[in-house]
Amino acid sequence: MTQNRSPDRSAERIRPPAAGWISWVALALMTTSSVASLRPAPTMAVYGLACVFLYLVPALVFLLPTSLVSAELASGWKGGVYNWVARGISKPAGFFAVWCQFAMTIFYYPSLLGYVASTLAYVFDPGLASNGLWTATVIVVAYWSGVWVSSRGTKGVAGLASGGLIIGTLVPGVVLVVLGFVFLGQGNAPAAPMDAGNLLPEWAGLASLVLIVNNFLSYSGMEMNAVHVSSLRDPAKQFPKAMFLAMGLVLLVFILPALAVSWVVPAGELSLTAGVMQAFDAVFAQFGWQVLTPVVGVMLVLASLGGMLTWLAGPSKGLLLISREEGYLPPVLQKRNKHGVQQNILVAQGLVTTVIALLYAFVPDVSSTYWIFSVITTQVYLIMYLLLFVAAVRLRRKEPDHPRGYRAPMLTGLCGIGFAASLAALLVGFIPPSQLGSGNTVSYVLLVGGGALGLGLVVPFLFYRFRKPHWRQPEDGGTAEPAS
What we know:
Order of helices and strands: HHHHHHHHHHHHHHHHHH
Largest sheet: none
Number of helices: 18
Helix content: 55-70%
Structural class: mainly alpha
């Protein structure tokens, strides 16, 4: 507690010098670059015009609360998710939160690289997009190549990811949307109806809305962008402006390409993994430009691989640092190579990723496998958000006078909305989507539940339960321990 201090003056001491200021527009663009992607476009294009509604709802009940709540936490406490949850709830809860932030990547990589494989297929042979062996091979080769690059401590990965955004997301996205409008302007009828009667998705039971769960993952990651709030000159006024601008830009990047895909590719022919390339191929065919399809494929692949390299270095490093301080992982997983990279964690993660990738070779429907892994990814990450919202409310009550560069308005209400939305999305994720056909519901629930609950809760509980005192290997001058 810091009741005998002036909160405003304390906040000033943690703010950067003038040379470190960034504009709220720059922060909005940084946020957009880290969140926006063309990857979800085919997933939501099956809804046609209704995808606008299905993107707006999670933006209001999840993206906005997450952004504002994370901004308050980041402006008051360093250390990211672990420190926020550890101080707000407890150290074990903090470990669970940072574990979920890391563990979601175990399923994120196969789903991301499954998309890469389907996209890359259009560079060589579009028929490979539905070939499980091809998909498994690309996942294994791409992941272990990324581990090799990351383990050497290569600099410039962030620059590669930023360049990938422009080359592999913004440019192809603009091309897709512009040519989509030209396609309609030439008198072609859209593959999906665009009248007002299709603004809302058809109700065919809860299964008809399950794909909305994937949008929560599309908007995730705001808790990492919030760390820049202290670099604004006037966070209380500028951060909300930055978030609203970013939300508008993110919605445009998500919605317009999804609509363009729905104009060109009939929903019944749409692959959840190759839909973007299907749309490019179909649009280019209208103009006789199909020779450009492989070029766009390479651009999209570069963007995805750049993002993968960034994620490889981030969550696993956070898990390593916390584990060395508190002894949450056995020493073998805490070892670093000569470049200071957590190579053993990456290798252990890679073994699991390889096993998951091999499933693609034996599962006949690649789209179904891709979707299941995407849902598991979302489920695990949502556990972290549930803890985050609870911690934010408790920190506001436990440490009301702690200096914060930004205070979220109506914090309890925002956290309540975000918690309810996250919990609803987590529960809905256990319902098989109607778009995947009539499969075995019990098998689907066991797969998703086993993946999410097993990896997100059981595994970290076992690490915590059987931890040993000698597992602690704190750094010299390590970080201060959070309050229990």
